Amino acid sequence: MGSLGFERAFALLKHRFPHLELPAAFADFLREQESNGHVLHRVASGERLDDFLRRQDTPSHLVERLLTPQGRLRLRLDYHALLGLQADALYAYLIDQLAPIYDLQQVALDSETVTGFNAHGSEHVSNVARKALSLARAYDPLGARETLAQEVVIGGLMHDLGNLIGRKLHGLYGVYLMALMFEQTEVDAATLDSFTTALEVTLFHEVEFGAEQGVFKRLDPATLSVIIADKTDVSFRRVSAKSNVSEAMRDAHVLVNLLVANASIARETTPGSGRFVWRVDFRSKFDLEHFDLFSSLLKATGRVRYPQEWQALYEESNIEYLFVFQSTFLTIYLSRLYLTLRAVFAMFPSVNEFVFTVDDAERSVSLTRVFTRNGFRQQVQTLGKLFFREQWAGSVLAQVIGREA
């Protein structure tokens, strides 16, 4: 039994979520792929993926592990067999098998800007899979659903592979690639249902696509856990090696991630607590161990070179960098925060408060915002109006919240 094919894969998702429609841009891409026999291309340029990767000076052995000489996907995986592995063994196997994809999807993303793109390689997907697995086990501590852990691992490790084709709609491109890659998905009804869940994880994790879908109460716990783990994965480790140039400090995404030493998530287990905490550890000084990684972004002392706008707020208005950081963080990641809030409240009915804390251990200062189950939409809307002013009303996020209100 071969691969499922996208038409069948989308039909399965459509059966689960009847409102789903393919965006016109993706439908055009799919028609082109079907006409060329599924020779993989970059969607923005139309360039063959193998030609694009070689033009980026990608080592040939990585390209050849992923693609055939004709430019088609080489990698094939037996989904039914993977479901028979324990979660830890499955994780180790997929990390090895998917290694070239992780390297190549970062090559693709870094090509989109002159100063690099947030890291989406093996460290990111590994963090997402591990954290999502922890969330899933908290949701189902007795393991009542036999394949939940496997679906979380598969979805967590594969959620970003669509970036090989294109950044926008990469969840859909990921579903397309998974439909080509996986075999033995229809061995029995349970296997097919599990594979549909893995596709669901990849499809709905994407902020731009996922935020517009009013389906959170129907999303599988595997999908919700990966959304939460993915959207809360911020830290200096996500700064691309290509971003080690002074011009990168103009990119708020680079700057914000650079200033995060660590980020953690946890559902408080104290009886009656009902809280979920996302803690971000702010750090403005690096030690020698990491200095060379970010030498162009740091002063000789190891302190971050803040952009002039931040320095002016600090020197002229006495606004500490921690406050500027929190404001910038919430501005660029407001849609990501909203998606996380929806996922947390959908996955854990006992959680009534989502606590977002930015902690500066060096200065012994913490900033905390508490979002409530009943009020988080209004709270996000208030932040949106503050940060985006007259542009807020026309934003996708404002329209999404308006439809849900």
Give your account of this protein's structure:
By secondary structure, the protein is α/β, with parallel strands linked by helices. It has two domains: 1-231, no CATH class; 234-405, no CATH class. The protein is 51% helix and 9% strand. The chain contains 20 helices and six strands. The strands form two sheets. The chain has a four-stranded mixed β-sheet. The chain is globular, with a radius of gyration of 21 Å. The relative contact order is 0.10.
Question: Helices and strands in order, then pairings?
Answer:
Elements lengths: L5 H11 L7 H12 L13 H7 L4 H7 L10 E2 H5 L3 H11 L1 H12 L11 H18 L8 H11 L11 H12 E2 L5 H16 L2 H4 L10 H11 L20 H7 L1 E8 L7 E8 L5 H4 L16 H10 L3 H12 L1 H14 L5 E8 L4 E8 L3 H13 L7 H9 L1
Parallel strand pairs: 1-2, 4-5
Antiparallel strand pairs: 3-4, 5-6
Helix pairs in contact: 1-10, 4-7, 6-9, 8-9, 8-13, 9-11, 9-13, 10-11, 11-13, 13-18, 17-18
Physical arrangement of strands within the biggest beta sheet? 3-4-5-6
What class would the helix/strand composition place it in?
alpha/beta
Q: How many DSSP E strands?
A: 6
Order of helices and strands: HHHHEHHHHHHEHHHHEEHHHHEEHH
Q: Radius of gyration in whole Å, from Cα?
A: 21 Å
Total number of helical segments?
20
- Based on Cα principal axes, name the global outline: globular
The major β-sheet equals: 4 strands, mixed
Overall number of structural domains: 2
Report the mean per-residue pLDDT as an integer. 94
